[in-house]
Design goal:
The complex is a heterodimer of chains A (356) and B (224). Chain A is globular, with a radius of gyration of 24 Å. Chain A has 356 residues and is of the alpha+beta class. Chain A has helices at residues 2-6, 47-55, 83-86, 103-107, 113-122, 138-151, 168-185, 196-202, 220-225, 230-235, 329-335; strands at 8-16, 22-30, 36-40, 62-67, 70-74, 79-80, 88-91, 156-160, 189-193, 205-210, 213-219, 240-250, 253-258, 261-266, 274-278, 283-286, 297-309, 312-318, 322-328, 342-347, 353-355. Chain A has two domains: 2-87 and 154-233, Rossmann fold, CATH 3.40.50; 239-355, Beta Barrel (OB fold (Dihydrolipoamide Acetyltransferase, E2P)), CATH 2.40.50. Chain B has 224 residues and is mostly helical. The A-B interface holds A 55-57, 82-90, 92, 94, 96, 98-100, 109-110, 132, 134, 148-149, 152 and B 114, 116-117, 119-127, 134-135, 138-139, 220-221, 224.
Chain lengths: 356, 224
């Protein structure tokens, strides 16, 4: 048990902000299993505040924070280490590079010349050494900020929306680049983001925060596949969260009643009123008429709206309840979908996930 | 021209500025970042010399440093001298009188430093004092220079406080402005004109340099 606690970050913090917003987060991250943890939530959910609490830049009204058995903060014992003693590297959204110092001076700000030189090399910053930060591109600034944080030999790295200051093309390119750099650094990291593509690309583990509370935490794939509640489902981007009743249960399959329609899904023991969660990309569309005898869920409906989003088309349907499907723009064209058209939506039983 | 008075004024202004930088930087730091709610009281106190007649300030300083006051008594015990009508007494009064001219521009410059830069430095393990020295001061240099120049110039031009606290002792407390007043009283208009012209030119130059600094004509580094 002790060895398990040894490699954990534990945080249980309550803080009321002047705006009246209250953060009340309990979180425990197994750092050994999760080199990169994503703290995911919509804006205003309290993720940056939580990150600042971890760094020691904010003081909780009440709470405990410990890293690998070392107490960083314990309000019951009146302990709250200043940021200088926590050794938590913090990467600000806009990088906060010292504007009056060159790249080399920034990286070496709190490091031995040897460590600074090595990191400058690792991050390919040699050619910019004598430049001032404002002469660098966003991606280069990010590398400097990361090198500066790592040069101080942090025990934990905290990144606040690290990609948000970049333009869209470099943001996508930098996702994998950033993950590679974080893994290579060997320092466990917590990355705040509100972008689910970023969450998937960067994280091993994720914690979903909404309304100042941690709603769910676990391996990224688990959280996306099995959202714990409708709010998590909505925030991780499961477009269809449908209130349902269990109508029948036989041979490992459940029949759900959603509005007037029926849906089949895998029985994992839920009872009572549930929410059926279906990702939009798991909904296929066809012009063939519905056949209820099929093993798959076939739902008759009408097209309400078709929106093109680059190579994809988002199709909103009315199947007695609203249902959103995402198909390729090409197949949307082939199906010639127009508002008012009758279509059939197909959802595999295994693509329907239940939450209560 | 009364070179003795000019030299005295310059010395007084130099030491006043030096002391003000030592006191004003920490005070401005505290005023800028302290979470204390009552700091507005200190702000008001620091700004008082801006509106108080110099005679009132001078009168209180005279009372405070007189031989019967605790400060005056302590000073007499330590040095055997007296503060009123001495260069040291004049220096103490000048520091109080020019305090807002240092503290206000410096506090404004500190407030313009992005707080995230301080936090970034703290998170790198750098102490608050070192962060002040390595981040805040270099980024506030134009404001600090403005504060120093204004304090210097304000001390060179002071009259009321000097008259109350220092009197008119040649080589000890007779500053430029007192000297001009003396010359006019003695109907010695030629000398008064020369010294006044010197002060006029000096003041204009100082203000021009200050505004140029604020516009960052000779910026220490370019603004983003």
């Amino acid at each position: 048990m002790a060895s398990q606690l040894d490699c954990q970050l534990t945080c249980r913090c309550r803080k009321r902000l002047e705006s009246g917003f209250e953060l009340d987060a309990a979180l425990s991250i197994p750092l050994a299993e999760s080199p990169v943890t994503v703290l995911f939530g919509p804006s205003g959910s309290g993720k940056t505040t939580l990150l600042r609490l971890l760094a020691g830049l904010e003081r909780p009204d009440d709470g405990v924070i410990s890293l690998r058995g070392a107490t960083w903060c314990d309000s019951s014992r009146a302990i709250c280490l200043p940021p200088q003693q926590r050794r938590a590297g913090f990467l600000f959204q806009d990088y906060a590079l010292f504007p009056h110092l060159t790249v080399a001076e920034n990286v070496g700000f709190a490091a031995t010349p040897e460590a600074a030189r090595k990191l400058m090399e690792t991050f390919g910053l040699g050619e910019f050494a004598e430049r001032l930060p404002r002469a660098l591109s966003g991606g280069q600034q990010q590398r400097v900020a990361l090198a500066r944080a790592l040069a101080a030999r942090p025990a934990l790295l905290l990144l606040d929306e690290p990609l948000s200051a970049l333009d869209a093309p470099s943001r996508i390119r930098m996702r994998h680049e950033l993950r590679r750099m974080l893994l290579e650094s060997g320092v466990p990291s917590i990355v705040v983001t509100h972008d689910r593509m970023e969450a998937v690309a960067l994280g091993d583990w994720m914690a979903v925060i909404a309304g100042g509370r941690i709603r769910q935490a676990g391996p990224v794939q688990d959280v996306f596949r099995h959202p714990a509640d409708p709010q998590v489902a909505e925030s991780v981007g499961v477009e269809n969260v449908l209130p349902a009743k269990i109508a029948a249960r036989e041979r490992g399959l459940l029949t759900l009643q959603v509005g007037e329609a029926h849906l089949q899904c895998v029985d994992s023991g839920e009872t009572g009123p549930v929410f059926a969660c279906i990702r939009a990309e798991d909904v296929a569309l066809t012009r063939e008429p519905a056949q209820t005898s099929s093993a798959r869920n076939r739902l008759a409906g009408r097209v309400r709206l078709v929106t093109l989003e680059g190579p994809l088309a988002r199709v909103e349907l009315d199947c007695g309840f609203p249902l959103v499907a995402v198909v390729t723009a090409q197949s949307a064209g082939e199906l010639q979908l127009n508002p008012g058209d009758a279509v059939c939506a197909i959802v595999k039983a295994t693509s329907v996930h239940l939450t209560t | 021209m009364d070179w003795q008075a000019i030299w005295l004024s310059m010395r007084l202004a130099f030491f006043t500025t030096l002391i003000l930088l030592a006191l004003g930087l920490p005070l401005a730091y505290w005023l800028t970042w302290s979470p204390r709610r009552w700091k507005f009281l200190v702000e008001a106190l620091v700004a008082m010399p801006l509106i108080l007649p110099p005679t009132v300030l001078g009168f209180y300083v005279l009372l405070a440093i007189g031989p019967r006051s605790p400060v005056g008594a302590l000073y007499a015990k330590l040095t055997g001298g007296m503060l009123p009508f001495s260069f040291q007494g004049l220096l103490a009064a000048s520091v109080l009188y020019s305090m807002p001219f240092t503290v206000q521009p410096v506090a404004a410059a500190f407030a313009a430093v992005d707080r995230k830069l301080l936090e970034a430095s703290w998170c790198l393990g750098v102490s608050r004092l070192q962060t002040f020295r390595r981040v805040i001061v270099p980024l506030s240099l134009p404001g600090i220079a403005t504060g120093a120049i204004l304090s210097f110039a304000h001390t060179v031009g002071e009259f009321g406080v000097v008259l109350m606290v220092g009197g008119n002792i040649a080589g000890v407390t007779r500053t430029i402005s007192i000297s001009i007043y003396d010359q006019v009283q003695a109907l010695n208009y030629g000398a008064a004109l020369d010294t006044s012209l010197f002060l006029l030119g000096f003041s204009f130059t100082v203000l021009a340099v200050t505004y140029a600094l604020q516009r960052r004509i000779w910026a220490v580094w370019p603004v983003n």
